[in-house]
Amino acid sequence: MNPYDKLPPQRFWKAIAAAESEADIDFDCGRKFAFGSAERFAIAGSCFAQHLGRHLARRGGNILFTETRHPLVREDANHGYGTFSARFGNIYTARHLREL
Question: Is the pTM above the cut of 0.90?
């Protein structure tokens, strides 16, 4: 007995490679995790993080924003408020995120 005995066929390369077309492949591996409504998400990164944050917010996700618009900044001027959890701009490396 080994840890792979109880896995479904779609978890193995041989079964997927033998499929006639992509439509025959079951890519759904089930739910990995779930989030509660009280959990908060910090958004940092690049354009992918911006899109992810918008979609999470649309679906009821609680996005953490640590900076509010300064009273002297006009409402119609974006200046990066609401794009990420803080106004640090795009982050392309883990080292940069760690530094922040």
Answer: no
